[in-house]
Design brief:
Length: about 725
Amino acid sequence: MARNPKYDILFEPVRFGPKTMRNRFWQTSHCTGYGSDRPGTQARFRGMKAEGGWAVVCTEFCSIHPESDEYPWHSARLWDDGDVVNLRYLCDEVHRHRSLAGVQLWYNGMHSPCLESREVARGPSGLPSNVFPERCLYDAAADEDDIRAIINMYVLAAERAEQAGFDLVEVSGADSTLPMQFLERRYNRRSDGYGGSLANRARFYIEVMAALKRAVGDRLAVTTRFETDTINGECRIQHFDEGLHFVELMHSEGVCDLWAVKIGDYEEWGEDAGSSRFRKTNWMRPFVSHVKSIVGASVPVVSNGRFTSPDDMVTALRSGQCDVIGAARPSIADPFLPTKIAEGRVEDIRECIGCNICVSRMQQQALLSCTQNPTSGEEYRRGWHPEHFEPAADPCSVLVVGAGPAGMECAMVLGKRGYTVHLRDCAPELGGHWRDVARYPRCAEYGRLISYRQIQLEKLRNVEVHLGVPAMTADDVLQYGADKVVIATGAHWATDGLGAEVHRPVAGADAERAEVLTPEQIMGGKRVVGEKVVVLDGDGYFTGVAMAELLADQGKAVTLVTNMNMVAEFSKYTMEMPNNKRMLHEKGIRFLTNHWAHSFVPGRLRLFYLYRDSAGLYEVEPGRWGRRTSDELVDLECDALVLVTARVPNGALYADLKARRAEWQRHEVQAVYRIGDCHAPRQALNAIFDGHRLAREFESAHPQHPLPFIRERQLWGHSTIPQRGDLRPAVEPV
Ligand code: ADP
Ligand code: SF4
């Protein structure tokens, strides 16, 4: 289909410095964990976005020197010519699709643990890091020679970037990196020309930009990513105070070709990577539009805001908020988002759901993956393309039982590959357990996971979806007439308090009783008796806090009890922890950590503290050594107990079919596989990945078992750059 003319503005070229981007789509710098040490994964991942229409594709934060080392988090690096070799592949891939490659130059000062390099970062004042307060991490206070050295590091890194083929260098002036450490009063205690007044504190940042302009500015664009407000109050950067004044200062120096604007610093990263549970599309609008009004028409401004709708993008552009649509997560969830708008296929956009699982992978020091897009990160190592599916050579008929995330994804990919698929579910709607999730407080955007697949399934003529059918038994499956069967029957919340803490049920916790409930029962309408409710959370992600909020909103007095060190412990990875805590506080939800349930009777939940036994080991009885155990218990008043303790696979159908393997041939069933939570309950991204992978590898010798993938690592016996004894280019001023 042709593009809707109202979206034409999105495809206008934009000039910045010596470069021109072919449209207004900018893939903002974002972490992946691929760095420069996994050149294939990095290059194909970024190249895919260029192929999908993003006119500028940036790296993640890219360390300019071993003094700025955040290992084991993986940044890109431009430390030496070895990194140039690896990152050149990224630039080549991006250029192959007529896009521009950007690299974010990053020096992290006091927040550099240097666990790999063992060097010491320099900073404005020699203070302890507030990001890693437990690590005994200080920067070395920089004198003026050190400042010159650091600026030289930026310049050398930019020159290496140019050698690698990058088109623009973006100075990270965000997330509490060194330019911000000079700028912010809380970090800068200097009394020389780099401290004191705003102009003095801004000097380092502006000098870095000016040095880059002098060194590479006639060939490369020199840009910055700046946060106008750190969203944490006085003595930090506040938009209407020093945030906008700094923009005026830097703009008047003429050293910045383009501004990418954000809010939130390292501690409040969740304000930049705002999750959909807390921030709606384009939440940064007021901050960005003021920057645009300062820098005027000649300098483009990039605005992020989890934009997935072209109408929202057009509104942002036409309102004068920005010139360029920036996106990290929407470009991960759908690398082909611009192409789909250009081709008039807006309904095919795989919209980001704002879950921040992508960020969580990085925060777990792992590799980026996406809930919505199971091919992200798999472009190189598994050779997956998000929009291309290899037609099956000999498509047979497949029955998929269960239309949750795993079953929907598997049926969709099998359908795109040409199989004849019947997707059957006893529920009246698609989505499995995710239907409930999308109705949890704050989780409406999670519903996009279902709607995207629903639209795709409706388009596939070779896929039939049968909903509201009787629950299928092994007899039903064997007699169905399909050549192959995929079981995707999901999981349910434990009804007896089974959880990871003691791996045993909780005495008296039985969801058959009126006073005990599971999340499914609550979403299904079971009445929550009494006033005092305890949510027992052994899951640690969003379900526990969602149940607590839901019930608090109904006027219950809610206490959340968890065995973990913090409520919603996983949300420290998704950057939602601070706002989860604020929400609990605002709604008066009390919480107790490091406790687990001992027993429940209506009116009273009995808990134990996980560390109630002695620290020392003693002779507890003659000849028997161990901890001195305690039987200390804590009682909580509890009219109703909500069990968010563990999920249990719905594995019976697969087990029945496997037990009747001898009958498969008689029924002409060639194979039965299982995917998703009925195999093992996991986060939705893994259920979706499971369904996707099986469908991609459906003709392999043993499709239930994944094919190997390319592992990027140094293989012994090959030369490395640099070699031991090689000299680094000098950065210290002479
Ligand atoms: P996953 O996350 O693995 O995709 P879900 O729990 O979300 O799993 O979805 C499983 C789906 O399977 C649910 O919609 C459920 O109604 C359906 N289901 C479970 N058992 C059967 C069965 N025997 N016959 C048909 N549908 C089933
Ligand atoms: Fe969006 Fe979630 Fe994918 Fe990240 S993981 S890009 S937040 S859908």
